[in-house]
Design brief:
Blueprint: E1 4-8, E2 11-18, E3 22-29, E4 34-41, E5 46-52, E6 55-64, H1 66-76, H2 78-91, E7 96-101, H3 118-122, E8 125-131, E9 134-137, E10 150-155, H4 157-169
Antiparallel strand pairs: 1-2, 2-3, 3-4, 4-5, 5-6, 7-10, 8-9, 8-10
Length: about 170
């Protein structure tokens, strides 16, 4: 599982994809040995999480409805966070994500991901594959693609268009 991190308001926030579930975003509480954060679930619900002292993997989770999460965010200062997130999003305007299918008859059905040379040819990156409802994060060049796979590809609009063409035409 990959972890991303970045500073928000001077605090290191760790972002962890949870395949099939959503994304965990948390940060350490100063001097307590605990972490606090949220799990943004794919179904739109949010869990508030608070780790046990000294053990970030053992968490107490509180499920919240979208309305409850919005209310809590308002209490915690959501207007400032919304402004900050909007500013961060402007920095990522050229980065897009697209789901591309390996269709029956694709020249890459039954072949290795590395055979596409996707990154070299398009500057787009295949960051995950969804197969039969299961997410396979960060597939390597030795991953064999099959018809029906959904590739999660990140790149510029032009790079994603080129990636789609490669998967169809070779």
């Amino acid at each position: 599982m990959s972890h991303l991190s970045g500073k928000r308001g001077g605090v290191d926030v760790e972002v962890t994809p949870l395949p099939g579930i959503g994304v965990r975003k948390d940060f350490p509480l100063a001097g307590s040995g605990r972490r606090v954060g949220v799990v943004d679930r794919k179904d739109g619900t949010v869990d508030l999480i608070l780790s046990r002292p000294g053990n970030p993997d053992e968490c107490e989770q509180v499920a919240m409805t979208v309305t409850e999460a919005a209310t809590l965010a308002g209490l915690l200062g959501a207007p400032q966070l919304v402004g900050q997130l909007a500013a961060e999003q402007r920095d990522l305007d050229d980065v897009n994500t697209r789901h591309l299918s390996i269709r029956t008859g694709s020249p890459y059905a039954g072949r290795l991901l590395g055979d596409t040379r996707m990154r070299t040819r398009t500057t787009a990156s295949i960051v995950a594959v969804v197969r039969g409802g299961q997410t396979i994060p960060s597939p390597g060049p030795d991953f064999t693609m099959v018809a029906g796979d959904q590739l999660i590809v990140v790149g510029t609009g032009a790079g994603l268009d080129a990636a789609a063409t490669i998967l169809v035409d070779g």
